[in-house]
Amino acid sequence: xxxxxxxxxxxxxxxxxxxxxxxxxxxxxxxxxxxxxxxxxxxxxxxxxxxxxxxxxxxxxxxxxxxxxxxxxxxxxxxxxxxxxxxxxxxxxxxxxxxxxxxxxxxxxxxxxxxxxxxxxxxxxxxxxxxxxxxxxxxxxxxxxxxxxxxxxxxxxxxxxxxxxxxxxxxxxxxxxxxxxxxxxxxxxxxxxxxxxxxxxxxxxxxxxxxxxxxxxxxxxx
Length: 222
What we know:
The chain is an alpha/beta fold.
């Protein structure tokens, strides 16, 4: 089981958001955002921020850091969506364990949102749209759909109508905007309910985005 940081907006929450950080960060990265999101009208939420495992990352000269999967040179160029398949699937299984733990704590799958930024967003899409039980939603920030070549065969009917929030900076130098937009287009063409936002920013999160996230979370968990 991954180590996590947890923040509850009320005692005995009835919903959960499992939020994955980006490459080289850890679970602390998005903790401050909880106090910035307007959750007026939302149920009590348990925010779960897992720490990714540590592993050598090729694109960073093999340095060991927290990463949901390895990234090699060329993986984030143009519209390509290559990924370290073994690492992606390992992380998918670990997030599945966190969902199961929330189920054991009396929060059903349909009250759980998977969220993530960059690499974490890729794992949110990978796990959420392939998950066997219907989730409340999937939030993917500044990211792309990994293992896209197997997606059509592995996507589950349970989450075919699940709301997906995608957002991307138009000036992102890390995960090119074109990668995020093409992933959006692919999912939209497959019939997914995508709420898409772009912002004039780089590889980050902005205040307008936080406002949009709050509205979406209140809607899918309300």
